Amino acid sequence: MKTLTPALAAHLAGEVTTLCTCWKVSRTDGVILGFTEHDQDVVIDGIIYKAATGTTPTAIAASADLAVDNVDVTVVLDDVVITEADLWSGVYDNASVQMLLVNWASPADGSLVLSNGHIGQIRMGGPSATAEVRGLVQAFATNIGDFFSAGCRATLGDVHCRIDLSGLTVAGTVGRITSQRIFSLSGTGPVLEPTLPNRTVVAGRSFTHKIAATAFFDPAGNLLMFTASLGDGTALPSWLAFNATTLTFSGTPPGGVPSLTFSVTASDGAASVSGAFSLTIDPAGTSFSIPPVVAETPGNVRVPAGTAFGFELSPTTFYDADGEGLAYSASLSSGASSPPWFAFGALPSWIAFSAATLGFTGTAPLDGPNDANGVQQINQYILRLQATNGAGAVASCDFLLIATVSGDQGPPAAGYYAGGVVTFTSGANFGIPMEVKDSNGATLTTFLSMPRPLAVGDTFSIYPGCDKTAATCQDTYNNIINFRGEPFVPGIDAAMEYPGAPNG
Q: I need a labelling partner for 341 at 20 to 30 A (CA). Which of 93, 142, 318, 426 fits?
């Protein structure tokens, strides 16, 4: 039931009315805007409902049943109130809309709420845009819940996926323009591998903690400078030193110091990226068990494919509580949380491991491995380092070995950014995100043309996509434990099969 103020009810009952329709739009970024079809601005409860946008609605219809009542509203893009960039940036997506009937000659008489809803599809057309305003009943037509699917239902980086996109997001600059959909990078800022290793130490006992040199890299090959601070940006405590050349922390934590978070920042002079890790301080070593434990989780390692490489993991990767010495071994892993259908085993023949130095040497092939179906994958391998003490107790940790094409420190393979999102941080397309259709080296192709002209020197940020397969979740992101798909549940074809049924 709709309610009216006495003043507005009296006006509606009169022979002559001065009525207009107004729209109150509450955007997802918190901005509230008002629009009206009247030829002059109308002020209601302190909000100015502007007439300059040339707002024109279709007929407003409502019913007592559960039929969805939608209205289309056309507005003129004026680059002041409603801008094309805002529409493309998504701030109007799912914005709430309240439609009001008001006496423009006396707005103080009150208003009649005609409907409430949300903005749905927006269609761009020349100097104007048409927005679909969906009524509240639209929610009843929306599917709620998950469906079985072979592919993952999560979106890369969301609460279900749990991948931290901040470590995968890189900065770039447009260097060459082929079209409004195809452009190439002139260089990118430094990149952080997904995480920095955490560390557990004992109060009163000196320690060193080395960040792997491969934890940060610059796709453009620029020299990186490193700084370190507490997680809140303040200076390191006096008992802790940081060597920016070797990326090594060293010190002796005093008793009574709480666990701390530290930040390491890499800068190429124009752009920077930061990574954080936690230092857990055990007051008396009571948290260590007799079996060995992982003290430093190795970071991802990048090596050039087709060229001999060599690297060593930190000798303090494991902590031996009883001090009897550890024996080390290495293998090819499917990930610490992998289900049983992902096999793992001996190292590939091109990798050699030294238990004495925790060193790996070899020459990665130029072609990636094949999956179970013979399809070539990107050059990434999950390696497992295992430590065993004299009593046979075991601890292990996994890290990713990424073989980049020789001479190319960019994405590990063609298509790496396919399905990802590029967002421009300068230029005419500032703030506008666009999904990436494909990538090939330094060249990006977006699904749709950028709405405004691209220019050499425009900057942007970009993160990779995911094809939602179990193989990519495991091999690329080592995240199979959060995979939200059912690739092995039989589908309708399997359910309808019968003995002797022909294939195809």
A: 318
Among 104, 112, 151, CA closest to 1? 112
pLDDT confidence of residue 379 = 65
Please list the residues that pair with 195 across neighbouring strands.
none
> CA 363 from chain center: how many Å?
32
Separation CA 133–CA 112 (nearest Å): 18
Q: Kindly report, residue by residue over 206-247, the tens digit of the pLDDT.
A: 888 888 776 777 665 567 889 999 989 999 999 999 999 888
Per-residue pLDDT at 317: 84
Residues 116 and 98: their CA atoms lie apart, in Å, by: 5
Cβ atoms of residues 337 and 481 within 8 Å: yes
337-364 pLDDT, tens digit per residue, is: 333 333 457 788 889 999 999 999 988 8
User: pLDDT below 50 — which residues of the chain?
Assistant: 63-68, 79, 287-289, 335-343, 370-377, 406-412
Q: Please list, in sequence order, all residues whose beta carbon lies within 8 angstroms of the beta carbon of residue 82, skipping any fewer than 6 positions away.
A: 33, 53, 75, 76, 129
Q: What pLDDT does residue 404 have?
A: 67
Q: Which residues are within 8 A (CB) of 103 and not within 5 positions of it... i.e. 6 or more apart?
A: 8, 11, 17, 18, 19, 109
Number of neighbours of residue 25 by Cβ within 10 angstroms: 20
pTM confidence score: 0.45
> d(Cα 37, Cα 55) in Å, to the nearest integer?
5
Report the CATH architecture of 17-141.
Roll (2.30)
Task: Give dist(CA 501, CA 491) in Å, integer.
Answer: 16
How many angstroms separate the CA atoms of 16 and 21, rounded? 16
Collapse the DSSP code of 382 into the 3-class scheme (helix H, G, I; strand E, B; otherwise coil) and give the result.
Answer: strand
Polymer length of the chain = 504
Query: What is the CB neighbour count within 10 angstroms for residue 72?
Result: 15
Other CB atoms within 10 A of residue 64 CB: 5
For 316, the token pair is 């303090």
Sign of the torsion angle spanned by Cα atoms 69, 70, 73, 79: positive
CA distance 120 to 435: 19
CA 504 to chain centre: 39
Report the C-alpha gap between 395 and 317 in whole angstroms: 10
pLDDT reported for residue 193: 58
Domain boundaries, the chain: 17-141
> CA of 474: how far to CAs of 253, 325, 463, 471, in Å?
37, 33, 18, 5
| SS3 state at 107 | helix
